[in-house]
Amino acid sequence: MNNKLKTLLTGGLTRRDFMKSSGAVGGLAATAGTMSLPFKSNPVAAATTATVEEKLVWSSCPVNCGSRCPLKMRVVDGEIKSLETDTYGEDVYGDHQVRACLRGRSMRRRVYNPDRLKYPMKRIGKRGEGKFKRISWEEAYDEIAANLTRILKDYGNEAVYINYGTGVLGGTVTKSWPPGASPIARMMNLLGGYLNHYGTYSSTQYTHGLDYTYGGGWAYGNSFSDMKNSKLIVQFGHNPAETNMSGGGIIHYYMEGKEQSKARTIIVDPRYTDTAGGREDLWIPLRPGTDAAFVAGMAHVMISEGIVDQPFLDKYCVGYDEKTLPASAPAKSDYKSYILGVGPDGIEKTPEWASKITGIPVDIIVQTAREIALTKPCAIHQGLGIQRHANGEIAARSVAMLSILTGNVGVAGGGTGGMPGSYYFNFASFPTFSNPVETSIPVFGWSEAIYRATDMTALKDGIRGRDKLEVPIKFIWNYAGNCLVNQHSDINRTHDILQKEDDCEMIVVIENHMTASAKYADILLPDLTTSEQSDFLMSSEADFMPFMIFASQAIKPQFECRGVYEMCADISKRMGVGQEFTEGRDQEGWLKHLYAESLKMNPSLPSYDEMREMGIFRQKAPKDTFVAYDTFRQNPEESPLGTPSGKIEIYSERLAELAATWELPEGDVIHPLPIQASEFEGWDSPVREKFPLQLTGFHYKARTHSTYGSVAVLKEAAPQEMWINPVDANERGINNGDLIRIFNDRGEVHIPAKVTPRIIPGVVALGEGAWYAPDKNKVDKGGCINVLTSQRPSPLAKGNPQHTNLVDVQLVKKA
Ligand SMILES: Nc1nc2c(c(=O)[nH]1)N[C@H]1C(S)=C(S)[C@@H](COP(=O)(O)OP(=O)(O)OC[C@H]3O[C@@H](n4cnc5c(=O)[nH]c(N)nc54)[C@H](O)[C@@H]3O)O[C@H]1N2
Ligand SMILES: Nc1nc2c(c(=O)[nH]1)N[C@H]1C(S)=C(S)[C@@H](COP(=O)(O)OP(=O)(O)OC[C@H]3O[C@@H](n4cnc5c(=O)[nH]c(N)nc54)[C@H](O)[C@@H]3O)O[C@H]1N2
Ligand code: SF4
Ligand SMILES: [Mo]
C-alpha cells in the first residue's frame, strides 16, 4: 500500500482499546487518599462440619455482553450448588449493586452442562461432523507444535491467524479479546508474530464511518447519566434494556437519567424493543437500512424552516454549506446542497422523498425534525444495530448529523449521535509484546483470506500493511470464539471453505463447550471456565461507576480441562520460548504481579488479599456525567478534534480520496457526505422480487451471542422465534407459534413464528447467536441467523452487514 493511502486509513483502534488508552475518558485518575472503599468488606464465610465442606467464593461472568457481573459461588463439597451476586451496600444509584442477569445466574448450568468438553480431542471425521477421538494433552501439544513449526517454516508468520473471539473478553490473563491482548498473542509474538485483523464484529462500520466525522478512531457520545440534563431523548437502533442489562449495565443510567429529567423519549427501530417497553413516548418504526433517508428528510425540514444552528455549523464544522467546503471539494458538494437537491444528484430530500424510502409517515418526519431542532438540549444516541448493515458506515455518520445540525455536540444534556460514553477502570494489562507482523485484514475477511488470499488487495479488500496478501491463512487459533462458524456470516459458505483441508491446514479450538465452531477443530482443547480458575475482570460499559472483579477459583478443574495460560505455556515450551512466555510465573504469579502494577496506578485499591475477599471493587469516576468533546466545544483551537481539519467533518476529504481510489463492486458507496445509499439486499433491491422480506437481527436477552445458548432454562424463558407482523403472517397463513421456514439462496432455517405488531410490516427479525443445528439436508433447526446472512462486506470498513438480508418465509406446520 502506498504511504499516502496508508495515512488516509483509520488506525484500526477498537472502541475499548481506545477508551483504555485515552486520557479523555480512559481509566480513572489515581487519587490516593481521596477515594475510600465504597463499601465494607464482606468476609468469605467458611462453614465446615464433619462431613460437608461449604464455602463462598467470588467468581464472575466474563462474556461480551456490555456488562460484567460478580457471581458469588456457594461451593459444597467441591461442587457449585447455588450462587448469588453483588449484595454490598445500600444499593443507591451511583453506588448500586452490580447484580447479574439471568444468564450469569445460570452459570452453574453452563459449568455442568452436558455439552461441556472434557478431554483434549483430535478430529477423525470431516470438519463439522463432530467426530473426535480422545487424546492426551501431550499428544495434543505435540501435534499443535509440529504443525505450527511446519506452517511457520513453509508459509511464514502471516499464515497464522488468531480468530476473533469474545467469550473471555472480561478476563485479564485469560483475555480472549482483543486477540492481541490474549495469551495466544503473547506466544505468537515470541514466535515472530501472526496475521492481524482490524475492526470488530461489533462496531467496525461505526468506528470507520464516524472516524471521518469526529476523528480519533472511536466517536464518543455523552454518557447515559447525562440524560438527567436532557429535554429530549432519541435512540436510534439501540436496545440497552437487552444489550446492557444487569446492575452494572448502562440501562440503569438510562432509566435514572430519564427519570431525573423526565425528558420525552423517541425510539427509532424496526422493532418495538424492550428498551421502549412502555417507557417511550414515541416509537418510530422504519425499514432497516433507511436511517440515513430519515435523517436527510428531517434535515430538509430543519434547513428549509431555518432551524439549524448556523453559528455552530459555521464555527465548528466543515462542509455544511459552501462557505466551509474545503478547497479540494467540487462546487455544490456541500451537505446543504445535497439536502436541497442542488448538488450533483439533483434530488431534493423532502420528507415525502424520505417517507417513500423509510416507510415513516411524512407528518412524523416533519414533527420529529421540529422537535429535535427546537428542544434543547437533545440527547441523540445510536446503538450498533444500524451500523451492522451493508451501508452501515454512512448510516452511523447520518445519525450524528442530527446532533451536528442542531448544535448539540459538546454540551451537557446533548450529545454527538454516537454511542454513549463510559468511564473505565484503570488496571494493568497482561503484557503480550508487540506483533512483528504489520499485515492486517478486516476482521470479517478471514474466510476469504483462506481461499483467495493472494487476490486480496489494499484497494479492493482493505488489506493493510501490504498492497496485497502474500500468503493464505493456513493455521487458525480459535480461542473463546464462535466466529469460526456460528457468529460469522453465511455458514454454508464457511462450511465449504473449511472443508478443504489443504487450504486451511490446521484449526485449534480452545473452548468449554461443543459449539458449532468446536466441531470444525482439528485439535480441540477443553478450557477451564472462569469458575475453575482465578483472574481479574474489568467493567465494560459502566458509565460513571466503573468496577473490577477478582474472580477466584471456586471449584477444581472439571474432567481433564486445563486453563489457556497453562496451555500456551506448555506449547511455548515445545516451541522453544517457554521461559520468555512465563517469565517464571504461573497464573497466580501473574495476578499478583499485575495487581502490584495496578496498585501503583491506582493506590486506592485494597490489598491483593482484601480484594480477593471482597470480590468486587466499585469506584466512582471523577464526574457523574461524561460530555463528549466538551473541551472542543469550549475552545476548538486549543482542543481540536482528531480529524485532519480539527473540526467536525460533514464533508470528508479523506473519504473523497478513498471514493476516488478504492475499487468497489457495483452498488457499494463511499461518499464524502453522509448520504442515503441503497443496500445490496435492502428494501429497494431487485432481489426482493424473489425474497420479499427484509430480515434483521438483534442481540437477544436469552444469550450473550451464542454463549449460554445451550442452557435449557434460558431457552425456555426466552425462546428462539422469528418476529413477523400480522400483515405478513396473514398473507402466508401463519399464526403465532407455527413452525415456519425462513430461506434465501444461502440457506434455510426452521423455527416457530412470533406473530406480533412489535415489528414493522415487510420486515422479520431473528435474535442472533442461536446454536446452529443442521439436519442432514443442512436445514438449521436451531434458529441461527447466520445460515441466512451474507459474506459480502460493507464498502468502507469491509465489515459484517449481518442485519442486511432478504428472505422469504413459509408455513411448515401449524402449532
Ligand atoms: N448475524 C449476526 N451475527 C453476529 C452478530 C449479529 O448481530 N448478527 N453480532 C456479532 C458481534 S457484535 C459479535 S461481538 C460476535 C460475537 O461472537 P463471539 O465472539 O464468537 O461470541 P460468542 O458466540 O459468545 O462465542 C464465545 C465463545 O466463547 C466460549 N466461552 C465462554 N467462556 C469461555 C471460557 O471461559 N473459555 C473458553 N475457552 N471459551 C469460553 C463460549 O462457549 C462461546 O463459544 O458475533 C457477531 N455475529
Ligand atoms: N443480551 C445480550 N446483550 C448483548 C449482546 C448479546 O449477544 N446479548 N451482545 C453485546 C455485544 S458484543 C454488542 S456488539 C452489543 C450489540 O448491541 P447492538 O448492536 O446495539 O444490538 P442489536 O440488537 O444488534 O441492534 C440494536 C437495535 O437495532 C435495531 N436495528 C437493526 N437494524 C436497524 C436499522 O437499520 N435502523 C435502526 N434504527 N435500527 C435497527 C435492532 O432491531 C435492535 O433493536 O450488545 C452487547 N450486549
Ligand atoms: S451476561 Fe452480562 S449482564 Fe448477564 S451476568 Fe453475565 S456479564 Fe452480567
Ligand atoms: Mo459485539
TrEMBL record:
<keyword id="KW-0500">Molybdenum</keyword>
<dbReference type="Pfam" id="PF00384">
    <property type="entry name" value="Molybdopterin"/>
</dbReference>
<keyword id="KW-0411">Iron-sulfur</keyword>
<dbReference type="InterPro" id="IPR006963">
    <property type="entry name" value="Mopterin_OxRdtase_4Fe-4S_dom"/>
</dbReference>
<feature type="domain" description="4Fe-4S Mo/W bis-MGD-type">
    <location>
        <begin position="54"/>
        <end position="115"/>
    </location>
</feature>
<dbReference type="GO" id="GO:0005886">
    <property type="term" value="C:plasma membrane"/>
</dbReference>
<dbReference type="InterPro" id="IPR050612">
    <property type="entry name" value="Prok_Mopterin_Oxidored"/>
</dbReference>
<dbReference type="InterPro" id="IPR019546">
    <property type="entry name" value="TAT_signal_bac_arc"/>
</dbReference>
<dbReference type="GO" id="GO:0051539">
    <property type="term" value="F:4 iron, 4 sulfur cluster binding"/>
</dbReference>
<dbReference type="InterPro" id="IPR009010">
    <property type="entry name" value="Asp_de-COase-like_dom_sf"/>
</dbReference>
<dbReference type="InterPro" id="IPR006657">
    <property type="entry name" value="MoPterin_dinucl-bd_dom"/>
</dbReference>
<dbReference type="GO" id="GO:0009061">
    <property type="term" value="P:anaerobic respiration"/>
</dbReference>
<keyword id="KW-1003">Cell membrane</keyword>
<keyword id="KW-0560">Oxidoreductase</keyword>
<keyword id="KW-0004">4Fe-4S</keyword>
<keyword id="KW-0472">Membrane</keyword>
<dbReference type="Pfam" id="PF01568">
    <property type="entry name" value="Molydop_binding"/>
</dbReference>
<keyword id="KW-0408">Iron</keyword>
<keyword id="KW-0732">Signal</keyword>
<dbReference type="GO" id="GO:0009055">
    <property type="term" value="F:electron transfer activity"/>
</dbReference>
<keyword id="KW-0479">Metal-binding</keyword>
<dbReference type="InterPro" id="IPR011888">
    <property type="entry name" value="Anaer_DMSO_reductase"/>
</dbReference>
<dbReference type="GO" id="GO:0030288">
    <property type="term" value="C:outer membrane-bounded periplasmic space"/>
</dbReference>
<dbReference type="GO" id="GO:0043546">
    <property type="term" value="F:molybdopterin cofactor binding"/>
</dbReference>
<dbReference type="InterPro" id="IPR006655">
    <property type="entry name" value="Mopterin_OxRdtase_prok_CS"/>
</dbReference>
<dbReference type="InterPro" id="IPR006311">
    <property type="entry name" value="TAT_signal"/>
</dbReference>
<dbReference type="InterPro" id="IPR027467">
    <property type="entry name" value="MopterinOxRdtase_cofactor_BS"/>
</dbReference>
<protein>
    <submittedName>
        <fullName>Dimethyl sulfoxide reductase subunit A</fullName>
    </submittedName>
</protein>
<dbReference type="Pfam" id="PF04879">
    <property type="entry name" value="Molybdop_Fe4S4"/>
</dbReference>
<comment type="similarity">
    <text>Belongs to the prokaryotic molybdopterin-containing oxidoreductase family.</text>
</comment>
<dbReference type="GO" id="GO:0009389">
    <property type="term" value="F:dimethyl sulfoxide reductase activity"/>
</dbReference>
<dbReference type="InterPro" id="IPR006656">
    <property type="entry name" value="Mopterin_OxRdtase"/>
</dbReference>
<dbReference type="GO" id="GO:0030151">
    <property type="term" value="F:molybdenum ion binding"/>
</dbReference>
